[in-house]
Design goal:
0% strand, 148 residues
Amino acid sequence: MASLTPPQAAPKWNHTLEEVLSAIKWALLQNNAVSDEVVALLEVECNFEILPLANAEAEGFIICEPLGFYQNISTSKELRDASNQVEVLQRDFNVEESMRLGIFKAKVAAEKNLHESGEWEKLNDEQHMLRTMLVRNWDLDGGSCEVC
């Protein structure tokens, strides 16, 4: 007979105002720390090992997304306002992160390193597209604008 034990605990919906705000700030700081590590890489160390960046983004999403739901369910105005602030902070962080010059330079260096090492030719079509889009998204976000 199958086990009736759930694979994970049910989410809790009893956060305090302070917990909501501290959780979002912690998640954004953790995500920023991973980005700082990528920015600190030397050009020759850059590659498309994007797992740390992807994991940081996913962990932030796992923490922040449920906290944003309080604006729809909470009877406390303060908690609804804090939940709304969670979404604002997350949105602002995502905009800043997408425009971060150091991250872009690391992506460009990684693409260059792949070409120089001959690894670019070993990538399949999907991997080519992903790596090209990681760099191209910067242009689409306005990062290549020389007016700044």
